[in-house]
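seq:
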Amino acid sequence: MRNISLQQRCAHVLAAALVWLLPVAIHAQDVEHIPVDNPAGAPKIVFESRAHDFGTVQPNTPLTHSFVFTNQGTAPLLIEKVKAG
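struct:
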């Protein structure tokens, strides 16, 4: 049997764990998933526009844009855990 150090063994275990967990992490980051159906009594977010193009911008120019949306469902719409893209 090959003689490997504890550090190498730990590195192999860590690499195997990362390979095993990678599909789970990728699936968890699926931010584009939007349910097709909207069961009765559920919130339903509807955006006026889901994208915005600022066009050509000079450096150090402050930019802002508001994404307008409404809740067209019947339950309250809770927005939690917001992250910048």
